[in-house]
Structure formats: structure tokens, C-alpha cells
Amino acid sequence: QTQGVSDTEVVLGSVNDLSGIFAAVGVPAVNGANLKFDQVNAAGGIHGRQIRFVVEDHAYQLPKSTQAYNKLINRDQVFANLLSLGTPHNLAGFQLMDPKGVFNINPLTAAREMLKEPVDNKFTGFSSYYDQTTAGMRYLAKEYGLTKVCTMYLPTDFGLEISNATKEQAESLGMTFVSETTHKPDEQEFVGAVQKLRSDGCEVVTMALGVRAGITVVGTAKQLGWTDVKFLATSAGFLEAVAAVPGGVTDGLYAASGWVDLQARRDDPAPAKFIAEYEAAFGQPATGFAMLGYNAADTVVRALEAAGPDLTQDSFRAAMEGLEYYSDLLDTQIKYSPENHQGANDITISVVENGLWKLVGRE
Amino acid sequence: MSDLLLEVRNLETFYGPIMAIRGVSLEVRKGRVVTVLGANGAGKTTLLKTISGIMDPEKGKIIFEGQEIQGWEPHRVVKAGIVHVPEGREVFPLLTVEENLALGAYTRSDKAEIARDRDLVFNYFPILAERRKQEAGTLSGGQQQMLAIGRGLMLRPKIMLLDEPSLGLSPLLTQEIFAILKRLNQDEGVTMMLVEQNAAVALDLADDGYVMELGRIVMSGTADRLAASEDIQSFYLGHDTEGARGERRWKRKKTWR
Amino acid sequence: MSLLELDSVTLKFGGLTAVNDLSMSVEEGQVFALVGPNGAGKSTVFNLISRFYTPVTGSIRFDGKDVLKMAPHEVPNLGIARTFQNIELFHQATVLQNLLVGRHRHRKTNMIAQMLHLPSVRAEEREHRHAVEEVIDFLDLQPYRNSRIAGLPYGVRKVVELGRALASKPRLLLLDEPASGLSVEETQNMRWWIDDIRRHMGITVLMVEHDMGLVGKVCDRVLALADGAKLAEGTPAEVQSHPKVIEAYLGTNAVSKGGKVA
Amino acid sequence: MEVLQLLISGLANGCVYGLIALGFVLIYKATEAVNFAQGDFMMLGAFVTLGLVNPEYAGIPFWLALPLVFLIMGVLGYLLDIVVLRAVFGQSQVAVIIVTIALGFVIRFAVGEIWGHEPQSLRSPLALGDVRIGELVLGLADIAVIIVTLIMTFLLWQFFQRTKMGLAMQAASQNQMAAYYMGIPVKRIQGMVWALAGIVAAVAGILYASKGALDPTAGFIGIKAFAAAVIGGFGSLPGALLGGLIVGVIEPFASRYLPPGWSQIAPYALLIAVLLFRPHGLFAQVRAKKV
Amino acid sequence: MRFHFKTDYDQDIRLFEDGWTFSLYAALLVLALALPLMIDPFFLGEATNVLIWAIAGLGLMLLTGQTGQVSLGHSAFMALGCYSCVLMMEANVPFVLAFLLAGVITGVVGALIAIPALKLHGVYLAIATLALAILADDIIVLLKEWTDGVNGKMSPPIDLFGYEISRWNNPIEWYYLTLAVVLMVTLFYRNLLRAPLGRAFAAVRDSEISAQAMGVNVAQTKTIAFGISCAITGLGGALMGLFAGAFNNETFNFLLSIQLLMMIVVGGLGFIHGAFLGAVVIAFLPQVLSMTTDLFGRGVAIPGLESGVFGVILILFILFEPMGLYGRWLKIRTFLELFPFARKDMFKRQKSYLKTERLR
Ligand SMILES: Nc1ncnc2c1ncn2[C@@H]1O[C@H](COP(=O)(O)OP(=O)(O)OP(=O)(O)O)[C@@H](O)[C@H]1O
Ligand SMILES: Nc1ncnc2c1ncn2[C@@H]1O[C@H](COP(=O)(O)OP(=O)(O)OP(=O)(O)O)[C@@H](O)[C@H]1O
Ligand SMILES: [Mg+2]
Ligand SMILES: [Mg+2]
Known about the structure:
Subcellular location (chain D): Cell membrane
Oligomer: heteropentamer
Radius of gyration of chain B: 18 Å
Protein name (chain D): Branched-chain amino acid ABC transporter permease
Bound molecules: adenosine-5'-triphosphate, magnesium ion
Main location (chain D): membrane
Number of strands of chain B: 10
Transmembrane segments (chain D): 6-28, 35-54, 60-82, 94-116, 136-160, 191-209, 221-250
Keywords (chain D): Amino-acid transport, Cell membrane, Membrane, Transmembrane, Transmembrane helix, Transport
Helix content of chain D: 55-70%
């Protein structure tokens, strides 16, 4: 008997941030996944099994997340977790999941440790922040010949990934690392930081900030008349709301990410369908993270289907490792293999133009 | 009786499970001074607090000018014309003397009259005028007591409930206070209910009196009658300290128990 | 040598001279009263002795030791206990606990021993309790032993405060208006208590009191204060008949709870 | 020039803290309660405005919406007092602290439910446009913040200093029983001050939202405003403003001149330093008790 | 109704008032000891969690409930306890020693911090300590050589005299370990309360001026209270970190301090029982909420529902009984004891009024 699997049901879990500082990421992602699962369940489930998706809120706090993992794994007996948010939170969860072989699929963190040993039960959805940042810097260096790179970051796992990428990869890209500033999530005034980076002569600034802060930084730089600089965000800042700030405040902001922006493609058939379905279900506009959530659920569903009626941890792993398809929702190719547990390797580079993200490059 | 101003009927007040007032009834007639005597913990303070709405009674009625006022919020009671000069001063410690007095006139709006009354208070207690800018919390105990009384006067009440007005005042000032109260009563017709440990002066000023013990009224009558009672004389006036009790340390039994 | 000596002590609050070049001395075994109009500086003198205030000039000595060199919490260790005019009890605690705090200066065990509740701690606790029960018996506080201060009438609180001071077994007791708010009967009790405190316990008493009846009966010596300076000093009778005291303090028609005074 | 720019931006920044701190102080001065939800009040005020003004919601013209916002927030503050705070009237301050913290949770939840968790921008006429004086740049919103804060502080200060109601509020905070003895309707007055705090929060929220994006966690800057109020001497209105300015100014300077990792510590380190030397803040409201 | 006829001072000094009370607590202890036999590992983990919260709560209770100082900085001391314990364990200090030393270190640091903080009262102390809690987060990041900054540390398994205890392999042993710490802390706490130091705490809380006049060194007493409080909380923090399996700077976020304060108020400020009742509420409520939402089917995950409902429940708790759960229990008990003589509105709150705390 496989944990979390019965003849009529397969239990999936997620430990997410529904009320903490990353609720803007966690909530739409969970909604997106729910949308997909509801559709699948309504259509009769997979091999006769309904999907039960249990979501726990950790509000971005570690002790709460262990509590949540304990509940999901020991009480709800989940088969797999998906979309779990936060690097340390996931790492703590591995301690419980690894001994039981519970899968961790497409966690909502782009940290490289998401594929640490034992890698058997771990799958990620898209490129890491590290790779995204590197790709973004490469693009800007090539396109504009910029060489002086700086970073602004929150002292969190997320911030550290991006600042490390900036510092470690600058040289290999023919750039020099010049300066850095750190911030707190509740900061709202960036004149000092922007002045500092400006006087240090930064040409590219990688950003690992909260969404609200990121918008303010770009706005402040504009206000102070600092125009000969490129700000580069990652998938964490790759949100419609950032592009849609009135007055063109964020115009010219770059973002490197693992997918192509949803709103920019809202007239294409797959995104249009998703946007309509999502808005009908939740009464809120669909966002990139909703799309990610939907896609992760889709990946799991495909694997469950491929694993066949006899669902075990081994059959599921084999199914995941054989998955290969083009996601027209994300506009990226998804391919897993026994050697590669990272689904999408594409990195997209976009820039804000007229209130929308415009795709300018792809790796 | 048309000149009945305040009437308390069968009042019971509790502190949680503790019954502090056990069915008290009393009457205060317009223009009279009524004193309530009683030992420690008899419930005098509780009685006054219940009348002024600071505490809620559980049973019974308080009728002021024909209106039932029990259970009212205290500020409404004040508006109706009852002012309570509390035990233990209760001044506003971080406000100046002047501001404390100004608050006494909170319910009034006639500026000229207020100014006149304030000058009157300053006239009664010149030290307050001298210290008008001092924070009330730094006044000496007696000075705070003067302020509390002065503040009560500023309200221009129909009836004043005075809880131990002479507490901590010098003998000279005690005499002056009682002279002032007498004047207020006689010239301005202010009715008073007076709780006072200094029974001699209280009975001297009062027209009627009640004696409370353990939450009940045990004796009542005109002040003169009470003053003549043997029990009152020995327990509240201390007449026999030198005589009957003398250097004896045991106490005589109270006959009303 | 006197037990307590104040030598030309002066204290100012801003422009106000609350105590003005005051000298006084209290002999061992005396009951000494400080009287004077409201705001004369009597409580301030107490606060100076308790080290809540530091005088601008002058010295305060207790049993030859310089009180001004002590921190406020060290003063009780000299054997000085006090009560407050406006009652400062630990209002959330019971009477018993209040009195036990009075024993604080007699504690012997340290924190670790107390945490482990070693036998020495228990022995000490019994000892404190014994001392406190004596005070309770003396002041007739038995009915209130386990009542919280918050629910006690004013008069009882005054007595509890006296008890708390007594529990510390002081050599000098400072009483700020011990009889204010007490009825005649209770004032009489207070008189006997003060007498016993002096006679049987051998404690010197310095008190502030407006009830001249009480002062006349229990005090050996009276000092009248006005505007922070000495007005008169002597036996109760001498001070009470001093014309300046009558004018500034007593009035011509002084009454005390126990009847007419003069 | 750079220094001047930092200073001016810092002042504008500090005024936002000052405005929130004003809300804290207001309630403290009149009730001695500490409202830990004031930051969330501000956030709520901003979202209410956003809900009324932004085209994707009600789309009412900004200036027309303002009185409506004040009304809504005032009523909310008053209701809050009636429904929640009156039940703990006369109870220890810790109870009020817990209640307001919990209230913050509820407000954050409700706002997230109604307006979502993604950052949004208020369509405020103040958000657009800068003012340039030589090399100095200031947003319109910054200037508005400075002016409004100065006016509000002055008005509130005068209100407490000069009016009968202000005096009664102070009295009610110092001794509720005695205030009742004076005929002051203590509970009603407290309700009014909560309503007033709601309005002040709305003003702060509107100005805050005009300066940048807004999301339900914006209320957390209340903590810095708290630090500001304490530095100023909790309970002093000019102190709140001064504290806000100090915290606001130290921030840009710290991030400009301190090494990364240290700059964010500055406001809190400053708070601790101030308290070390002035335990009750710059305009201390605490006195030694006379016995 | 039980009557107490006291014939001996020891009756007031003893831990238990009488045989009845003693048997009550003995039964409780037996129940606690037998708990692992009765519930599954998941709930046992939750029970352990409750006990850990209770330890941390007892620490804050000593300071806030007994001495009257409100601290919002205790998350910093939990962090200190946790990091110091784990660092020592990593340096091969035996667990028992590392654990106790972690308490001592936290206590000493707490006392040192208390010395300047002593001049502060009420809101000022609360905010200064809140600043401390916020700073702790940054300091952990700055000390990344030791603390591994934001990446955090994995908790090493506990080696108890050669016997390994790990959270996932032997939850029962973990539970007993926690229970032992709880018993020790509770006993120390009780002992303090019935000794001069405990009375000095209460004296400082109620009136600093008269405490001073009774010879209580207010500064020293507060320092000691702060120190002991921090030590206990540090132990709680160490257990919390070890139990969580992994921890970093955000684990001991200032929100933890706020939860801790909520916990002791909801439980009943000033009572040892309050810390436990509060811990049950704080640790179990989220679980209960998430189980109830599971019960109602998955539906649409409502973001932040948990903290929203949590807030509402806390508000209701306080409105229903500002004295906390234990206060309510005391009333119920009195009612039952007096039955049938209790009046219905015996516990109706008489109006109460506050006076300023700005006078010291
Ligand atoms: N807060 C309280 N909680 C419980 N009981 C109280 C409370 N306040 C007073 N009591 C009880 O109520 C009774 C009456 O007290 P009250 O203060 O009215 O007496 P009093 O006559 O004014 O005494 P005193 O002359 O000493 O001022 C007392 O027995 C007291 O024990
Ligand atoms: N902290 C202070 N600040 C300013 N003035 C003060 C302060 N403390 C006392 N005073 C003033 O000093 C004078 C002496 O006060 P004190 O309390 O000693 O008087 P007292 O003799 O005890 O009077 P009472 O009999 O009324 O208690 C008073 O005028 C008082 O207003
Ligand atoms: Mg009384
Ligand atoms: Mg005095």
C-alpha cells in the first residue's frame, strides 16, 4: 500500500504561504493548482482516483512549516507535495519526506538546493534564481556592453541566491561587481540606496527585493534622474502588477524568468483560455504564479496518468522521468529525465514596455 | 414629601461575590446636610459610589428628583446635578491645578460664571492660586484634597456627596472647610451627603444622620438626636475616652448590634 | 548621640523651597511628631530620609551613619521603615504577602537555594511567617490575612501598611498620617499600638499627624513646620499653645476626632 | 547637494512615520491604550481609498472620494471602539495590546480577501509629477506628506492643548474614574478618539499609497512608526513628529553611507540608543510619583 | 466544598495545599506520562510542541505576569538559546551540558541586556525589546560564520548519554525529554514564587516606590527576573529549534515574541497554569483550524484564513475573559464549589477603571 494512494483517491499536499510576506506568490499558485485539479476531478479523476489537494499555511515561518509537514505526511499521508514555498521551509520538509519517499514537486523557490541528494523524490519546475540572474546579466552585457554590476537584496535565502549569482558570475561574463545594498521587507524609502549605487557607478543592478520595494526602487531611480542604468529582476519580480504600475514608472525594468508573461500573451489561445477559467473560478485576475500553479498541477496529472493504474512511488518516478511536452500555457518546453529533474530549462528575458512585459530574449 | 431630593431604596451592591451594601434605604431632603457615619469597611464609600454611578447596584432604586438613576453611566448622574468628591483625592496628576479646576466645570459652558467660581475657589484656598501652574500630582496630600474639593465646587451641583473631605487637612483647614460647606449649604442651598470620620464636626454641620455597620443602616435620626446617643458618643465622638474607657483597652459592646 | 539627626537640610523643587535649612534630632525611644500646615514639607522630610530625594545642602545621619550615602533600597537595612500618606501597598497581593515583603531585609538564602527550595529556605520561610503572624495578632488583622489589598477599605489598608513596616522589625518607624481616615475607635487603637510599639518593641517613632488629640496623647516631642522651616519645637502642650502654631496651623477652634483639643 | 537630497527625501519619508505615530499618540494620550493595529489601519485606509478611486474598482474621482474615505474610516474606528474595546474597558493595557495585535491579523486577512495580495498602485493625483528645485527632486506626494503632516500635528496639538475636549481626553487617560466624576462621558470620548485615529490613519494611508505601491503587508511599517513615537516620548504629539523625522532621516543616510547589512539596523539601534539616554523618549511623558 | 483548616505554617509553604490538590496533580502527571500510549505519533508531536511553547511561555510569564514587565523581545532570547545550544552540540559538548549551558548563557546575556533596559517601563520597554527582536534577525545574518545566516542550520540529533533521540524516529523519547524539562522549569518557577524573591517580583510589579522602601533593590530584582525569564525562554527556544529540525534567522522572527505574549495573556497572566493553557491554544488552534477546513472539503484555499480566524478567536478570548482561560477556570471552580449557593451573576464584572501608568 503506497502512502497517500487508495483506489479512489490520491492525496497531494502543499506547504505554502497564504498569509505571510509571500502570500502574493503562494495564493495564486495554490488557486491555479486547484483549478487544474478541479477540472481533472470533474472529468472523473485519473485512473478512477480523485485528487485531494491539502494545503497548509506556514505564513513563511519555519516552525509552522515543520508542523505543517508533520500533519501532511503523518496525518494526511500525502503521496507528494507540490508548490511548497520557501527554501528553508522546503529543506526542513525534506527531513520528513526523504525517509518516506514522499515526492516534492515544483517547489515555489528557485533555489538550487531543491535538487539536493537524495534527488530521487525531488523535481523542480523551472530554472533557478541563480541561472536566471546569470542569464539576465549575460543578456544585458551582450546587448548593451554594460560591465559594472551591482545588487540590491533582502537578506533571505532568495536574496542570497541572486546576490551570489551576481558576485560569482560577473567575472565570467566580462563584468565587474561594484557594489551592493541590503534591505528589509518593510522598507519604503530607497533614496539613500539608489544614491549610493549611482555614485558607485553601477550600470546593471540585480534586484532581489519584495515586489512593492522593487517598484519603488525603479521609481526612485527615475525620479532622481538616474536613467543610464538597467534594473534586473527575477521570476520573483516578474509580475503583471509590476509592469502595470501607472505612469510608466517601471518602464525599462528587465526580468529574467522561467516562463513567458501571461498578460502579454493574453490573446493567444492557451493563455486566453486559462485567464478566462481562472477569473471565472476566483473572481480575480490571473497572474503568472497562478499559471505556474496550474502548470505544476498539470505536470503532476500527466505523470499520474503515465504511471498507470498501479500507482506506486516507483511507477510515479518513472513516469515523471519520462515526461516531455511543450507547455503552451508557459510557452516553454518541459522535459524530465533520470539525469535531469528540472523540468524547464528555458530562461526568458523580458522588459516592461507600455505596462506589459515584452519578451526580448530567450536562452 | 415634595422636598425629597435623593432617595435610596433597598440598595444592594456587590464586589463580585462580596456583598458590600446589604439593603440600604435612606433619604436626603432638599437643602439638608445628611451625614453617614460608620466604622471601617461599613460600606460608606461603596454607597456613595453606587449613587454616583461609579458602581452598579444589583438591586434597589436610587431616585433623584423623582427620576430613577440607578445603573446610569456616571457622567449622566453628574449632569443631573450630583457631584461626588471622592475618597483619596483622585486628581488628574499630570494636569496643572488650573486645568484640574477647568475640568470641574466640564459640564458648564457659561464662561463668566466659571471664571467667577474659579476665583471663589482660589479665594477659599489661596495656596491653589499660588500653585495654579503646578502639576497636581506634585501637590502635597492636603493640597490635593483642597483641589479635589475645589474641583467639586466648580461643578455647581444640586447635591454634593463628600467622602471624607477633611482627610489629611490641617486642623485649621478642617475648620475652614466646614465653614465653607456650611456657607454653601445656607447661602446657596446646596444639599449635602457627608461621610466623615471626624464625627464631631460632621454632626455639628449635619441636620440628619445615618449610622452604617457592615453594609446596613443601623441607626438614623436628626443629628442632634444622634449626637446625644450614648453609643455615638462613645464610638464616634470619643467622649468617654478619658472617662469610661479611660486607660482601658477593651471596647464596650455596641448596643445596636 | 541621637538616633536620627537632620542638620540644616534644604531641598528645592525649582523655585520652591520645600524644606528650608531644617535641623532636628530624634532620640532613641521617643515618639516624635512632625506637624504643620498642608504643604509645609512634612512628607518631603520623610522622603528625604527614605532617600527618594537628595537635599541641596545639609546632612542626615541615622545612628551615626550617613544616610545620604545610601541608595533608597539600602535605607531599610539600617532599620528604618515607613508608611505613606496616600497608601502604597502591593495592591494585587494579599495582606499576608504584603507583610512578608516587609521581611525582605531579613532574607538569608540566595536565589539558587530558593529555586531548589532547600531546607534552609523552608526554615527561613517559617521564621518569616512566624514574625508576620506576630504582627497580624498585634494589629488584629486575622480576618484579612488572605484578602487582596484591592478589596480592602481605606482604614484597613492604613493598618496593613503599618503592619508591613512593623514586619521589618525596624529601629525607627516613620508614619505619615497614621490616623487619617480612621474613625475615633480606630484612632484610639492606633494610639495604643503606637504606645506598645514604643514601649514593648522598643521602636522609635517619627510621625506626621494632623489629629492633635492623638499627637497630644502619644508624643514626647513635637516639631511644628511651616514653609519648610521650623516654627516651634517642644512638648505637645508647648507647641499647641505656641501662638504662631495656633495662627498657622491649629486655628482657634481646633477639633480632633476625639473631641475638642485646646 | 547629495546630502541635501538625502535630507529632504528623509524628511518626507519621516513624515509618513510621523503621521502613523500621531495615530498611536492620539489614542495613547486619550486612553493610555496602545494600538498595535495603527499600521494596519493605515493600510486599510489606503486600500479603502484605492477601492473607491481606482478605475478597476469604484472609480470615483479622487477629491470626491476623500471625504467618503474619512467617513468610512472614522465610522470604522468608532465601531471598533464600541464593539471591541468597550468590552475591555478598565482592563489592563496588555489586554488592549493583544486585542489590537489580533485586530491587525483580521484587517490584513480582510484586505487580502477583498483586494488581493498583489501590490497595487493608487491612482492618486499626488503620485504623478515631481518638483525640481535646481538639482533637488521631490515627488508631489513627498511635498504633500510634509505639508499635511505639519498641519495635522499642529492642529492635533492645539486640539489637546487648547480645547475643552482635548483637556477632557487627557483627563480621561489619567484617571478614568475621576473623569467620570467630572461628568466627562469617558467611553464616548474614547470612541471619538478611535474615530479620529481612523481618520488620521486614512490620511497617512493615502499619502503612503501616493508614494509607492501598496499591498496588505504595508501595515508593518507601523513598527518603525512605533519606534518613532517612542523616540519622541510616547504621548507627545510634537514628539511623534520629531521621532518620525529622526527615523525617516536616519534611513537614507544609513543606506547611503553604512556597509550593507548594517544600514537596516540603524533605526532600531537609534531607538535603543535614545532610550538608553532618555528612558522615556525625547519629550518624556513619565513622571516620578510623589508620595 | 472543601474547607482548609490550617494548623501549620508549612501548609501555606508546601507545593500542594492539601492531599486532594496533590492527588489531582499526581493524576495529571500520570496522564502526561501515559500519553504516548494513548495517542498516535502525529498528536504526540503536537503535544510535544505544546510543551515546548509552554516552556517558552513560562519564561515570559515570569517577567510579564510576575514582575509586570512586558517584553516583545523574547524571540531574540529563544534564538540565542537555540543557536548556543546547537553550536555547543556541534562542538561535541554533551547534550545535557549544552542544553543547560544554553539556558545559562541566555540568562546571563538577558540579565546584561536588562541592566540598561531597567530604566524603561511599560510601552517603552515593550518597544525597546521589540527592537531587540527585530535586530536579532539581522544580527543572526551578520554572524553568518557561526549561524549560517539565512540558510540556517539543521538540528543535530540529540545524544542523551549515548542514546540517540531524533524527532522523526523516536517521538516518544522526545516527548519525555520535553516533559522532563517542563517539570523542572515548573518546579523552579513554583519554588521561586513561594520564596522571598518571588514576593520581591510581585512587589516590583505593584509599586516600585514601596518595594524600595521595604529594602527591595528594584534594579537588581528586575535584572534577576529578566535573567531567569530569558534563561527559561532560551531553553524553550533550544527545544523549539531542535524539534523543528531546521531553523534560521526567520524562525525566531519578532512575530514569535508577539505570539508568546498572546499566549500568556490568553492563558491567564500571572498564573503558571496560564502558560500551559495558552500553549494549548496557540499550538493547537492552527491545527484545529486546518483540520476543520479539511473537514469542509478542500474547496478553494482561502489565503490568510488561518491567521484571520486566529485573530478573531483571540479577540473573542479576550473579550470573553480578560483574565485569561485560567481566570475563567477559577471562576467556574468557585461556582462549582459553592454550588448551589452561588449566585448567577456572582462573577459579573463590577465596573473597573484605570489610572495612568505614567507615574512611577
Ligand atoms: N474592590 C473591592 N473588591 C472586593 N471587596 C471590596 C472592594 N472594595 C471594598 N470592598 C469591601 O466592601 C466593604 C465596604 O467597603 P467601603 O470601602 O465602602 O468601606 P468604607 O465604609 O468606606 O470604609 P472606610 O471608612 O475605611 O473608607 C468592605 O468590607 C470591603 O471589604
Ligand atoms: N515633586 C514635587 N515637585 C514640585 N513641588 C513639590 C513636589 N513635591 C512636593 N512639592 C511641594 O512641596 C511642598 C511640601 O510638600 P509635602 O508633601 O512635604 O507637604 P506636607 O507637609 O506633607 O503636606 P500635607 O500635610 O498636605 O501632606 C508642597 O508645597 C508641595 O506642593
Ligand atoms: Mg471609605
Ligand atoms: Mg504629606
